[in-house]
Write a structure and sequence with these properties.
By secondary structure, the chain is mostly helical. It is built from 9 helices and no strands. Helix 7 crosses helix 8. The longest helix is centred in the C-terminal third of the chain and has 17 residues.
């Protein structure tokens, strides 16, 4: 029981920074329902997207919608279907080192499949605490430990396939040594 409670406390401490939302153009809109038009309401959809087009935090809004897999309404200037396409495309191809570093630090980010694999591989190389990165991936501690075993096996048998992860691990280890 104490392990579960400490995990919940850690997760609560990783809440998202939503301070950007106060700067959103839609925050001052008199009709928040405007951003949840029905599929056949093309004028309402266009109106909501035009508000997003002039919004200073549209990118953060879209990133959060993708991170949370939000499937409702207009977010960051895109509707549900447009975000779903973007979400699927990103889930297959994107590999962004900064997103991997953020996930390893315990920050909630939307990760593609290759990025998720890299998080586990770097965690295996650096022997990072599974309680830090497993919640970001949305997996249990037990499954995280299984993934670590698989990653360590891959590192031992196929060292050339993990070069970029080794580069991240080296720079992270160097950064820790300097900080200590």
């Amino acid at each position: 029981m104490p392990d579960t409670q400490s995990n919940l406390i850690q997760l609560a401490g990783r809440r998202r920074d939503n301070s950007w939302a106060t700067k959103a153009a839609c925050a001052t809109t008199a009709h928040p329902d405007q951003f949840h038009p029905l599929p056949d309401e093309s004028e309402e959809t266009a109106s909501a997207k035009s508000v997003c087009a002039s919004c200073p935090v549209s990118r953060q809004c879209l990133e959060e919608a993708l991170d949370l897999n939000d499937r409702w309404g207009i977010r960051g200037g895109l509707g549900e279907t447009e975000r779903l396409v973007l979400h699927r495309r990103a889930s297959v191809h994107r590999w962004d080192e900064q997103r991997i570093r953020e996930a390893l630090a315990g920050r909630s980010v939307h990760l593609s499949r290759p990025e998720r694999t890299s998080v586990v591989t770097v965690a295996a190389i650096l022997d990072l605490d599974v309680n830090t990165w497993a919640p970001v991936l949305g997996i249990s501690r037990k499954y995280g430990l299984e993934l670590l075993r698989e990653a360590r096996s891959n590192i031992a048998t196929q060292p050339l396939t993990v070069r970029r992860e080794q580069r991240i691990a080296t720079s992270m280890a160097t950064g820790r040594a300097v900080a200590a």
